[in-house]
Amino acid sequence: MESAKDEMKQVLESQPDDSSYDELLRELAFKRMVDKGLADVEQGNVVSNEEMRSRIQSWRK
To answer: What's the pLDDT score for residue 61?
Structure first.
Protein backbone atom coordinates (compact mmCIF):
# COMPACT_ATOMS: atom_id res chain seq x y z
CA MET A 1 0.00 0.00 0.00
CA GLU A 2 1.37 3.36 -1.01
CA SER A 3 1.54 6.27 1.38
CA ALA A 4 -0.63 9.31 0.82
CA LYS A 5 2.48 11.27 -0.03
CA ASP A 6 3.48 8.77 -2.72
CA GLU A 7 -0.01 8.84 -4.22
CA MET A 8 0.05 12.65 -4.29
CA LYS A 9 3.43 12.60 -5.99
CA GLN A 10 2.07 10.27 -8.69
CA VAL A 11 -0.88 12.57 -9.38
CA LEU A 12 1.34 15.64 -9.50
CA GLU A 13 3.91 13.99 -11.76
CA SER A 14 1.20 12.91 -14.20
CA GLN A 15 0.11 16.52 -14.78
CA PRO A 16 1.54 18.83 -17.45
CA ASP A 17 4.39 21.09 -16.36
CA ASP A 18 2.36 24.21 -17.06
CA SER A 19 -0.52 23.18 -14.76
CA SER A 20 -1.74 25.89 -12.45
CA TYR A 21 -1.89 25.53 -8.68
CA ASP A 22 -5.69 25.34 -8.88
CA GLU A 23 -5.57 22.61 -11.54
CA LEU A 24 -3.21 20.55 -9.42
CA LEU A 25 -5.42 20.93 -6.37
CA ARG A 26 -8.48 19.90 -8.42
CA GLU A 27 -6.70 16.76 -9.61
CA LEU A 28 -5.68 15.85 -6.07
CA ALA A 29 -9.22 16.45 -4.81
CA PHE A 30 -10.67 14.40 -7.67
CA LYS A 31 -8.41 11.44 -6.89
CA ARG A 32 -9.39 11.65 -3.23
CA MET A 33 -13.09 11.65 -4.09
CA VAL A 34 -12.70 8.66 -6.42
CA ASP A 35 -10.68 6.75 -3.82
CA LYS A 36 -13.31 7.46 -1.15
CA GLY A 37 -16.09 6.36 -3.50
CA LEU A 38 -14.32 3.11 -4.33
CA ALA A 39 -13.76 2.44 -0.62
CA ASP A 40 -17.49 3.01 0.00
CA VAL A 41 -18.34 0.48 -2.72
CA GLU A 42 -15.98 -2.08 -1.21
CA GLN A 43 -17.61 -1.58 2.21
CA GLY A 44 -21.11 -1.82 0.80
CA ASN A 45 -21.95 1.82 1.58
CA VAL A 46 -24.13 2.30 -1.46
CA VAL A 47 -27.79 2.98 -2.26
CA SER A 48 -29.78 1.83 -5.25
CA ASN A 49 -30.87 4.19 -8.00
CA GLU A 50 -34.46 3.76 -6.84
CA GLU A 51 -33.58 4.73 -3.26
CA MET A 52 -31.64 7.78 -4.43
CA ARG A 53 -34.50 8.82 -6.71
CA SER A 54 -36.87 8.57 -3.74
CA ARG A 55 -34.53 10.65 -1.55
CA ILE A 56 -34.18 13.35 -4.19
CA GLN A 57 -37.95 13.52 -4.70
CA SER A 58 -38.42 13.95 -0.93
CA TRP A 59 -36.08 16.97 -1.00
CA ARG A 60 -38.28 18.67 -3.59
CA LYS A 61 -41.36 18.65 -1.35
So the answer is: 77
pLDDT tens, 16-28? 999 999 999 999 9
Average per-residue pLDDT for the chain: 96
Give the distance from CA 14 to its chain's centroid: 17
CA angle 54, 60, 61 (to 5 degrees): 95
Cα separations in angstroms, 52 against 12, 21, 25, 34: 34, 35, 29, 19
Neighbours of 18 (CB within 10 A): 6
Which pTM value belongs to this model?
0.75
Identity (one letter) of the amino acid at 45?
Answer: N
